[in-house]
Amino acid sequence: MAVFLIKTFLKFGKLKTIYNSIREEVAKHSKVKNSVLGNVNEWKRSHYIILSEIIKDELSEAEELKGGKKFEIGNTISHVTLQRFFENDYQDKTHNDLRFLKTLDKICIFLGYKDLNAYIQFVKENKQEKEQDSDNAFLTQMVYDYCATVFEFYKNFPNHRTELFKELVFDESPFLERASQFSKELCDRDFQLVTKNNRSNFEVFDIHVVTDEADKKILESQEFWNLLFKVGETGEEHFVNQLNTQIYFIRKINNVWKIWDNYNPDAGRLNKRSE
Question: Parallel, antiparallel, or unpaired: how do β-strands 216-231 and 236-253 relate?
Fold first, then answer.
């Protein structure tokens, strides 16, 4: 498994990324930061001698080197090797041989990992987690943006400006068709949103992903809507004061993510109440 994972990184030219990452991790290691090396911006030969001693002391206590592996890869790294590692740019030809990989094994053990393979796996999983977090943040923001757009849409009543949703909702979606129908009825009856003194407001919270597929995401949110509408010349008031759970169905079409549908248990309720 270790050889396969390393070869995979070599094949796709990703060991250079690992190489640079390890150098950064060594510099941030507590034993290094708390030594004279932590106060020096540019290391010289004498500093690599100190680093070699720090690594040797740590490796002498490492559980991973208590057995036969100590004799297989050793438990020291010379200051010359360390200086080459830190000062030379990564080169495929010189940095893919077995001796160099053993050096990386020892450095990774110094960093607290089982070996180089374990470190590669950690970096890979950490990257995936960051990408997932980034994807989730994008989807969460989409729901926030949609709700803010709905509020802006209401503020424009009785003008029926469905074009405001163009960047967030697919034109051909059943959601836009349904929402457009409900809102058009209210606009035709001259509903106007009262926003003076923050009389109308909303809050969105507790958004989380329910389904996560390659081209489809389902998100659930808790939403509180507190709205006051007045009707044209009569001044008749209609209140919306509801806390509910809404479901958003988000799809990827032609490499673009937008909302395809929504489940709102209170959809159309204002239309029915004001008939």
Answer: antiparallel
Rounded-to-integer distance, Cα 114 and Cα 4, Å: 16
Report pLDDT digits (tens) over 33-75: 999 999 998 999 999 999 999 999 999 999 888 877 888 888 9
What is the dihedral sign for C-alpha 118, 119, 124, 126? positive
Q: List all residues 6 or more positions away from 178 whose beta carbon is below 8 Å from its beta carbon.
A: 267
Q: Do 131 and 143 contact (CB within 8 A), yes or no? A: no
Q: Annotate 27-95 with DSSP letters as a single string.
A: HH-HHHHTSGGGG-SS--HHHHHHHHHHHHHHHHT-GGGSSTHHHHH-S---HHHHHHHHHSPP-HHHH
Residue range 110-129: average pLDDT? Answer: 86
DSSP, res 194: -
SS3 200: coil
Please say whether the beta carbons of 211 and 251 come within 8 A.
no
Mean pLDDT of 191-215: 92
Largest CA distance in the chain: 91
Tell me which residue of 232, 222, 218 sits closest to 274, measured CA to CA.
Answer: 232
DSSP state string for 175-216: HHHHHHHHHHHHHHTTEEE--GGG-SEEEEEEEEEEEE-SSE
Stretch(es) of the chain classified as CATH 3.10.450.240? 133-273
* One-letter amino acid of 226: N
If one looks up domain 133-273 in CATH, what number appears? Answer: 3.10.450.240
Pair 59, 109: CB distance under 8 Å: yes
pTM: 0.60
| Residue 242: Cβ-neighbour burial (10 angstroms; 0-12, 13-18, 19+) | middle
Rg (CA), the chain: 30
Q: What is the mean pLDDT of residues 9-31?
A: 77
